[in-house]
Amino acid sequence: MDGALKTWTLRTGRRLRAISAPFAKGKRATSGAAAIEFAMVGPLLGMLLVVSADFSLAFYSDMQVQTSAQSGAQYAAVYGFNATAISSAVTNATSTSGISASPAPSQFCGCPTSSAVTSTTCGTTCSDGMTAGTYIKVTATRTYSTILAYPIVPTSFTQVATSTVRIK
After folding, report:
1. Cβ(143)–Cβ(156) under 8 Å?
2. pLDDT tens readout for residues 22-69
3. DSSP 8-state class, residue 31
4. Cα–Cα separations (whole angstroms), residue 166 to 108, 112, 134, 137
5. pTM summary value
6. Statement: residue 21 has pLDDT above 70
7. How far apart are CA 131 and CA 141, in angstroms?
8. Contact between residue 122 and residue 109 where contact means Cβ atoms under 8 Å apart
């Protein structure tokens, strides 16, 4: 035999083989290696899970702020300008707490361009020949605080979304 295995004969006549040494020629002890590897990698995977959940919550919160601003603008388009009611529509648009209409909704006259609405005096003629329209600007804000403090990311930041709608 090669020395790694020994054979014994039991009283019943059966033969029993046992490994005499796990370190015999070319064999290594690997018992518990997976547990040690998991102990090294497990905290890293746990931290990665927490960080991804935290950033996911931040993106979800930002989407709720955008939805609130759009809901306030939609309310203004249907019911006209009422700063208190629009602010209430912004606050109650989602179940996310801490969203406010700040600054307060504002009404202004303006001319549309390819990228924005330029504020002008009411009743003036725009460059496209149309009369300046009446617009309402709704802004929703919320402060998001991270679950943990990260080296690069601030522990809290303000999320802001603005929506503008023409009512006349």
Report:
1. yes
2. 545 555 666 778 888 888 889 999 989 998 999 999 999 999 999 999
3. T
4. 10, 10, 6, 9
5. 0.71
6. no
7. 32
8. yes
